[in-house]
Amino acid sequence: MRARKRSIGDRLAELAGARLDVLQVAPGSRAKHVALGGVLLSTGALAAVSAAFAVHMALGAPWAVALVIGIGWGLVIVNLDRMLLVGMAHDSSVVRNVAMAVPRIALAVLLGTVISTPLTLQVFDKEIDATIVTLQAEAADEFTTELDADARYAQMPALQERIATAQAVLAGGGATDPNADPRVTAATADRDAKQTAYDAAQATYREMQAKAQCELDGSCGSGEAGPGDAYQTAAAAAAQQASVVADAKAQLDDAEGTLLDARTAAGSDAASNGARSVSMAEADLATDQAALAALTSSRAAEVAAFEAQNSESDGLLARLEAMDRLAEDRPAAGTAHLMLFLLFLSVELLPILMKTLVNFSEPTSYDKLEKMRDDEDVAAETIRRDGRQRAVQARADLVVAAETDRMAREIIEREAAAREEAARREARRQARRGRFARALRSVVPGRPAESEVIEPTLDTGELEAMMIAPSAVGVFGTSAVPVPRPAAELLLPLPENR
Q: Is the Cβ–Cβ distance between 413 and 495 less than 8 Å?
């Protein structure tokens, strides 16, 4: 069981970017890296749960599919957080630490916002559902208002009125009401106005008569009975009002006569135009009904499409809008939403902030040992690279030396062959000269001629050209060759050990 815990701790430390070989030498830093790995794992778990909620809310995916996608997103977040931590090595410079921390903290804030939003929405799920119903109702009312104001459907009330009029004409057999004629309507309105004026004048006349009688009796006004000045004034005013009443009566009689004439003319016109009104009403009714049916069908289709869309508008964006409305209507909900958002955001920021604060402090034993190990690795790799380069150079030198020896042996063999050929030519020449000398001595006796020995010469220029030419064998691009030796040295006998 102890080995199992150590294995889990090692994996958590590796997740936090620690080197196990260094932790074995500096065990005091193990707990810090194990805890940091646990925080990374917790952040990934929150990201997985948040992504599952988001996929389920936004796409309506089944929970099994949402969980699979959520686990994948959690692994991505863990990998990103680990990359942010591993890339922040300890540095003594404050400016470099800030330069490394600022973009990483900005990215962590972005990731924390994406992770925390679905979780906070899930916490306020019931309140958001109720707010979404309200938003859907408001959207439906707004859509209806827009349709009523739409120019395409503005003629629907007029069409309905014309259809009703045509149907009334057809129901009456073409006979129309004379009272609906414009002439009758205008005459009726004028008669009603004159009647109102006459009634007002008559009422005023009665009041004036009553006042004059009251002055005569002495029961009002001046209080003196008899035909005094007050009575005479009131009686004169009543007489004057009587003329006004008579004039109003005359105008009312004229209006009554005009109305009677208009009704008579309208009745005669209605009787003559009855048949024509029926045919026109039938044609207008068919046209108006077709237009009204087309507009009604188009409006109904738009309403149905909107209702279908509005009833399904409960995804992630709608829930965000509902959360904003809920925060406006209920400040306590807005405060709670902010606190939850900051809570989940702090969990995402915690690893980066801890790593930043540690970088501002003095380097720990782990940091020092890690740097030493890195320096040792660099030095060891440098030594291995130099050794490989020396080995390559040595192999190239051996190849060049072997090639030089081969070339020297070829030259020596060529010189030996030249000497042998020269000796053979000299022997043949001597043989020819001997025959000639013997023949000459046989004719003219004298001192025998000395034999001339021709020594073969070494073509040193060819050897020098071959020695200073670059070797045809190159290893990793090297062109180094040994310093050429004098040609005379190549003619020396080879040592026994070679």
A: no
Integer Cα distance of 424 and 229 in angstroms: 192
Q: What are phi and psi of 494, to 5 degrees?
A: -75, 145
Condensed to tens digits (0 to 9), the pLDDT of residues 42-67 reads 888 888 888 888 787 767 778 888 88
Long-range contacts at 35-42 (CB < 8 A, ≥ 24 apart): 36/85, 36/351, 36/354, 36/355, 37/11, 37/12, 37/13, 38/12, 39/347, 39/350, 39/351, 39/354, 40/15, 40/16, 40/78, 40/81, 40/82, 40/85, 40/351, 41/12, 41/15, 41/78, 42/347
The residue type at 240: Q
Question: 94-98 long-range contacts, Cβ below 8 Å, gap at least 24?
Answer: 94/360, 97/356, 97/359, 97/360
Query: pLDDT tens, 149-187?
Result: 777 777 888 888 878 877 776 676 555 566 666 777 888
Neighbouring residues of 263: CB distance < 8 A, sequence distance ≥ 6: 178, 179, 184, 187
Residue 259's closest CA among 179, 341, 188, 195?
Answer: 188
Residue 197 half-sphere exposure, CB side, CA atoms within 13 Å?
17
Q: Are 72 and 50 in contact (CB under 8 A)?
A: no
Q: Which residue has the tokens 């060529």?
A: 414
